[in-house]
Protein: VWA3B protein
Organism: Eolophus roseicapilla
Amino acid sequence: QPLVSSSKWLQLHGLKRNKLSLSQILSQIGFQHRKDYVTILGKPVASRYADGLFPQYKEAQDGSVYNLTAKKELILHFVDCLLGAIELYKQRMEWLTSESRQIFGVIQERCIVIVLDFGTVAPAEFDLCRNALSMVLMEQVTQIAKFNLIR
């Protein structure tokens, strides 16, 4: 897999990019219930349209209320899209926490230097370090333009 940073990955696969954030979904499945100041009347007027006609959802962050008008099929479509996004996020987390990325993270630089200091390492620890080093060399360093090892 290409070594993509999490910020770039989110730009490609994030909820906002795929129009799956809460505010984006709410704007597609309903309309905001408003209480606005009407300048012509000179007083605040609460929207009476759709009171009790549609189910309502109150957004916790800003307290705005949405009247939900979408059909069941559209809501099920968003459920499927969100479940797909969850699965994609799980795969990304598994990839980020597997193999050499678990120890070294995702190496994104084009040129790197790895400094090895095995001065007083026990033989068992040396084997672990050697295995970790061979993993990072095979999985990530092969995709880098230049690298140096200093022992």
In short: The longest strand covers residues 111-115. The chain is about 40% helix and 20% strand. The beta strands are 30-33, 35-38, 43-46, 56-58, 65-68, 111-115, 146-150.
